[in-house]
Every structure is written in structure tokens, then in C-alpha cells.
Specification:
A two-stranded antiparallel sheet has the order 1-2. The chain is mainly alpha-helical.
């Protein structure tokens, strides 16, 4: 899929930007699997997720949707997930694998989760929310598929090459 033509000015915050281009960019990011509100309002959340998208795709991390970020939002291939744990992570588990998953889902838009390496009630809640958002069974457990979906993006076939 080719990106639609970029319409200047760049999307940035501050000040807030409210345009159809913002809504279009937010919708494309959400269609890729990012947990972003599609409201046409470029504020803190959009800037944070833009910078995270830029980081994952090797772009300058300025939180501004300029021509390169705009194009990548439609055309960049999905990032590769970190190696999944050898076992399913469940409530009560602790450690670095839980911390990595927590950090990644926060990077993708689930901000209220503490990155503490403890699979507690909040991690369980976010896990189920992410599973529902991604169309996975709502088990509340981080199996291989739930782990990978925290990284994978839905992208056009042409971008996956």
C-alpha cells in the first residue's frame, strides 16, 4: 500500500493540531495495531505514540509526523518481536520477561501499566484488553501469540517484504 500524499504542515504538539490529516494518521496507526485514540486531535498521546513508532522503525524520534513518518506509517514493515518466553506467563509471575512485555504494550499505547516485572491485576487487565483489541482469545495469559502481538503490526503485503 502506498501512503497517501503528505499534506503539510507536519503534525506536532505543542500546540495541538486538529485536522483531517491527524485523524487519518491516527486511524492508520490504529489499523496497524497501535492502541491510539482516533479523534483528529494531535496532543500528548499522539506525540508519545509517534515517537514510539519512530523508535521502532529507525526514524528520528522527534514525535512529529513529517513526510518520512507519514510514509512509514503506511509503508514500513512490521517490527520483529523479541524472542517469546519458553513458557506462558500468568498472574503471579515475576521477572524480566514480564517487564519486557509490560514495556512493549505501554509503548504501543496502554500507558497506565506500571513496568515493574510483576504480573498482577493491572497486567492481567491490560493483557485481556490487548487480547480483545488484537482479536485473540481473552485468556489473560501471555502465551507466544499474545507476546508476539505486542510487537506485530498489521501492514500491507507490499510493506512486509
Amino acid at each position: 500500500m502506498t501512503a497517501p500524499e503528505f499534506q503539510p504542515p507536519p503534525l506536532r504538539f505543542p500546540p495541538p493540531t486538529q485536522t483531517q490529516s491527524v485523524r487519518r494518521w491516527q486511524q492508520q496507526l490504529r489499523d496497524r495495531g497501535w492502541h491510539i485514540t482516533v479523534d483528529g486531535d494531535y496532543r500528548e498521546e499522539s506525540k508519545r505514540l509517534c515517537a514510539n513508532f519512530q523508535m521502532e522503525h529507525g526514524l528520528d524520534q522527534d514525535g512529529v509526523v513529517g513526510p518520512k513518518t507519514w510514509k512509514a506509517t503506511w509503508e514500513a514493515a512490521s517490527t520483529k518481536p523479541l524472542q517469546a518466553p519458553s513458557r506462558t506467563l500468568k498472574k503471579g509471575d515475576q521477572g524480566e520477561e514480564v517487564r519486557k512485555w509490560q514495556r512493549q504494550v505501554n509503548n504501543r499505547g496502554w500507558r497506565e501499566l506500571d513496568v515493574d516485572g510483576i504480573f498482577g491485576d493491572e497486567t492481567l487487565r491490560i493483557c485481556k484488553e490487548m487480547q480483545e483489541f488484537k482479536g485473540l482469545p481473552k485468556t489473560g495469559e501471555i502465551d507466544r501469540r499474545t507476546w508476539e502481538e505486542a510487537w506485530l503490526e498489521k501492514v500491507p503485503v507490499a510493506a512486509a517484504r
